[in-house]
Design a protein that fits this description.
The chain has helices at 2-5, 8-12, 21-31, 47-63, 80-91, 105-115; strands spanning 36-40, 43-46, 71-75, 95-98, 119-122, 137-139. It is α/β, with parallel strands linked by helices. Strands 4-3-5-6 form a 4-stranded parallel sheet, with helices on both faces. Strands 1-2 form a two-stranded antiparallel ribbon.
Length: 175
């Protein structure tokens, strides 16, 4: 019938295998480990260095209970470290919630209350912006226990990578 003539079986097949951002990144690291991956204000990191730094931070996050499907806030300034943090969160299977350090305290509070991150990654300099919140705070400069080793987590290709909020100019911001 029509299903056979229209080749419905081919139309309903997935055309691409399920991939994840960490998986695609790992392929790039394998292809070009010594190529520059990130450069910012005179500092640069190769793909291998970025991968190693992100793995260490991902190990710390996993050790603190960050799991696939969770949300982790990122209250960091734009820097190479912010890229390490994003990649580390994605390697745990969690989604990241960017929190601009320039936001008013009330807006930061709204994002934390609404998105309910399991933790917020930040720096020593920005930690005070989270005063009064009960969310666990993890300093981006902390390192995982090297003895713990990597903690591979099952990252779902259908999972959420990040949560971004509307400006809220026409009402309550929505994630």
């Amino acid at each position: 019938g029509l299903d056979g003539w229209g080749n419905r079986a081919a139309l309903t097949q997935c055309c691409m295998p399920a991939v994840t951002i960490p998986g695609l990144f790992a392929e790039q690291v394998a292809r070009n480990p010594e190529a520059t991956a990130v450069s910012f204000e005179g500092l640069s990191m190769t793909y291998r260095e970025l991968d190693e730094a992100a793995n260490r931070l991902a190990g710390l996050l996993a050790g603190r209970g960050v799991r696939p499907g969770a949300v982790v806030g990122l209250l960091v300034s734009r820097s190479a470290s912010s890229i390490v943090a994003i990649l580390a969160v994605l390697k745990t299977g969690a989604a990241y919630l960017p929190i601009d350090p320039a936001l008013p305290v009330a807006r930061i509070g709204f994002l934390i209350d609404d998105a309910e991150p399991v933790a917020v990654l930040t720096t020593t300099e920005l930690r005070h912006r989270l005063d009064g919140h009960t969310v666990p705070i993890i300093d981006i400069s902390e390192q995982a226990d090297p003895e713990a080793g990597p903690q591979p987590l099952a990252v779902d290709a259908d999972g959420i990578a990040y949560v971004i909020y509307t400006s809220g100019t026409t009402g309550t911001p929505k994630g």
